[in-house]
Amino acid sequence: MKFKAEIDIMPLKELLDPQGKAVKLGLGNLGIGGVDDVRVGKHITVHIEADTEDEAHSKVDTACKKLLSNLIMEDYSFQLSPVEG
Amino acid sequence: MKFGVVIFPGSNCDADTLHVLGNVMQVEVVSLWHKDHDLQGCDFIVLPGGFSYGDYLRSGSIARFSPIMNEVVNHAQKGGYVMGICNGFQVLTEAGLLPGALLHNSNQRFICKNIHLKPVSRKGLPSQQISTDATLKVPIAHGEGNYFIRPENLKKLQDQDQILFRYCDADGNVTEAANPNGSVYNIAGVMNEQGNVFGMMPHPERASEQALGNTDGRQVFESILSLVNA
Known about the structure:
With 85 residues, chain A is an alpha+beta fold.
């Protein structure tokens, strides 16, 4: 079976996010008021083959833990869905 | 003592490091290709600076899974010496061989300039032989050099004398103003608990020859060599 994982990786809340800080400044310069906080992370899509959804879940989870994110500075979450055909 | 400098795609300080070790410090040194599975009998592995794999995903994160890194991790776990400079330091934290992580600089900029270093550890090879009263002027060149470690782990680094260098001013004062990138506790370099894996963001290999107008970095290599050859 083919699955698609939609993975979000975000800098940990307690860490300063310089990119988010710069974007927040940009939004202010654009004239958009009321912006409280901006954080910039990554969105990664992975297409993966696995026999079961559980297996796909475990593969993606390992990928996130070992390579796609660094748990010292980031956290991750993902949604898994079967891909037709 | 045979040195090996690993070349990843995107490394750009490998030639400088090979030159300083081979021609300036006059030690036996070879280059090691990232696809190799063999350390060619090297005793001391150096991961050089640069932008391995374009710094994609996170600095050092993809290089960490290069074939040769299996051998490097093995070497380190058996007590062999490994040192990472700049991008090499990032690779070693990603590989879990050194504690902490290197975040984007707090000022959101790539910083390329001379900074000053205070030698700290009396246990670590790169700093041990340099007086704690000395101040080394060495360049940094990085966008992600903001050393981060949790407070409980910082305490461990301090207690176990694992901090090699701290950023300071020209007079040797460790101040907030002398911290170029937001690093926790002004940390510029650390080592592992066992004392055989080292990492530092500044580039001693860029400051080891009179022709370049600065030889302060040479003291780092001299400290290492006087101990490993002892």
